[in-house]
Specification:
By secondary structure, the protein is of the alpha+beta class. The protein is built from 4 helices and 3 strands.
Length: 96
């Protein structure tokens, strides 16, 4: 299938764009719309900074597989400090 055919068959969901002020001032109405299935792109000074969408349609990173063991069962190796915090800061600042 050619890329143009795929593009023609794709369904695009247009998200409304709202600015940060609208989200702050009308947050109850915006959340009500999100509960109703609406998605928003939130902008600050015209630059997109967040996507607000109903829970369950998460588009970010997902866990590919569940954890294999509980956190309490994990073993950690203790690292011994050889420098004080002040020594590390001095080294980073170039004062050593």
């Amino acid at each position: 299938m050619a890329p143009l055919e795929v593009l023609q068959r794709a369904t695009f969901v247009a998200m409304k764009t709202i600015n940060q002020r609208t989200l702050r001032n009308d947050n109850a109405a915006v959340i009500r719309d999100v509960e109703g299935g609406e998605s928003f792109v939130v902008t600050r000074r015209g630059v997109p900074v967040a996507t607000l969408q109903p829970h369950g349609r998460h588009s970010g990173p997902r866990v590919a597989r569940p954890a294999t063991r509980r956190f309490e069962d994990a073993t950690f190796t203790l690292v011994k400090r050889t420098m004080t915090v002040q020594d590390v800061l001095d080294d980073l600042r170039g004062e050593r």
